[in-house]
Backbone:
């Protein structure tokens, strides 16, 4: 894989040509010039930039407009008139309809290249290049997702329960019989849901379903009213048949059908068990999660006598492995319910050298009592919005080594530029294949203070 230069930035043609709104549903023949960072094909016509899901460079396609605003048009393929030699046949028959997997028409290796190029481009826009490009962390192409949300809707007119996933750029439900992205133990659970729900006496009360895989599998059903007694009996029998925990959510928080039921996942290489509840943030790819933790710890190089800061700590996904290697970890989280479970996870795993604190991480941190002492290193894993305020404070705290895990290369680049301006060096950066078959890019960066 070539890493010598950044890809060309996305160009927008000068305004010109037709200025009227492009109507939704219009069909248009287009020549695809390149890929956007999320894998959509890009074409230019009449002063507008078109983003076409499922299209590849070099192809001539017919596209149908999904949405249009100003000089940007979003569309999907209707027909391919000239095929790219790089196009492959998707493994899933619903690819192109379901909104979940948008890159199944290109090889897994090309998906990794696309995500690397996205990171290169976002950093280059800030004038940044790492001293070293890390090789991508690559996981399985399919059967990796241990958690999913399934759309459920009762069609009154046809007296039918739709079960599946939201369509591409649509709220419509694409009914699918199976999902090859799910881990193997969730696939048969998913496959039987349509028949189960269509046998219910009162299916109109059904909301969405979530499936979880970990120490045990679980099914969460959101319902708008109390389930009919016969429907609940069928649901319990279905879960028993598949050895699945049942969780229910009406008004309020999700509750297990069996009072002492718990959910957890293992971090096998650290002999840790992380408990969680529906609604908590959990990385969906178990294999890549462990690989990510291992790389983060390798880059951070924690020493036995050090005190390390973990921001956006969640359930302790990084904090607990870190605690096995250092004197003390200070772990900070903005969601109080997750912080409660993180403390319980540390106690259950017999780790007493982690102190957990609740704080709004969009606000300055230096006045917090836990920030008064020095830190040898810091790790942060913020949401898509990034951590601009937090990195400014890390620089003021003069933390020597920082590992930044990101699900949005644009905000990673922005926040990295803040640290570079404060005297840090971008030592390493690379992508993680957390979401194969999708355009989502996970990335990691190591910054050091010379």
Residues:
């Amino acid at each position: 894989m070539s890493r010598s230069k950044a890809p060309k930035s996305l160009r927008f043609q000068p305004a010109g040509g037709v200025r009227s709104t492009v109507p939704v549903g219009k069909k248009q023949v287009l020549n695809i010039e390149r890929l956007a960072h999320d894998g959509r094909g890009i074409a230019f016509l009449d002063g507008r930039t078109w983003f076409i899901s499922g299209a590849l460079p070099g192809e001539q396609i017919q596209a149908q407009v999904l949405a249009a605003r100003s000089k940007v048009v979003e569309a999907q393929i209707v027909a391919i008139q000239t095929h790219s030699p790089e196009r492959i046949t998707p493994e899933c028959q619903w690819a192109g309809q379901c909104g979940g997997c948008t890159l199944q028409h290109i090889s897994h290796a090309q998906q990794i290249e696309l995500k690397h190029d996205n990171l290169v481009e976002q950093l280059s826009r800030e004038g940044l290049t790492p001293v070293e490009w890390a090789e991508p962390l690559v996981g399985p192409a399919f059967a990796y997702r241990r958690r999913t949300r399934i759309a459920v809707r009762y069609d009154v007119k046809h007296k039918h329960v739709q079960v599946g996933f939201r369509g591409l750029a649509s709220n419509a439900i694409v009914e699918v019989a199976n999902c090859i992205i799910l881990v193997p133990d969730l696939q048969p659970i998913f496959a039987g849901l349509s028949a189960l729900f269509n046998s219910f006496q009162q299916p109109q009360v059904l909301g969405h379903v979530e499936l979880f895989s970990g120490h045990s599998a679980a099914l969460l059903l959101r319902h708008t009213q109390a389930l009919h007694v016969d429907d609940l009996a069928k649901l319990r029998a279905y879960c028993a048949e598949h050895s699945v925990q049942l969780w229910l959510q009406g008004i309020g928080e999700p509750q297990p059908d069996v009072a002492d039921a718990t959910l957890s996942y293992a971090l096998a290489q650290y002999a840790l068990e992380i408990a969680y509840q529906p609604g908590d943030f959990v990385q969906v790819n178990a294999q890549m999660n462990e690989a990510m933790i291992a790389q983060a710890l390798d880059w951070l190089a924690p020493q036995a006598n050090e005190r390390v800061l973990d921001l956006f700590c969640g359930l302790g996904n990084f904090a607990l492995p870190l605690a096995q290697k250092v004197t003390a970890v200070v772990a900070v989280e903005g969601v109080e319910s997750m912080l409660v479970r993180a403390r319980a996870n540390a106690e259950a795993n017999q780790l007493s050298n982690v102190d957990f604190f609740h704080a709004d991480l969009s606000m300055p941190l230096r006045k917090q009592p836990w920030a008064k002492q020095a830190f040898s290193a810091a790790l942060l894993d913020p949401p898509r919005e990034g951590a601009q305020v937090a990195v400014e404070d890390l620089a003021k705290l003069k933390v020597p080594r920082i590992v930044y895990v990101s699900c949005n290369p644009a905000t990673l680049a922005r926040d990295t530029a803040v640290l570079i301006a404060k005297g840090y060096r971008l030592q390493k950066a690379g992508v993680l294949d957390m979401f194969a078959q999708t355009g989502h890019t996970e990335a990691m960066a190591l910054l050091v203070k010379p």
Summary: The radius of gyration is 24 Å. Residues 114-140+285-448 form a domain with the Rossmann fold fold (CATH 3.40.50.150). Residues 108-125 form the longest helix (18 residues).
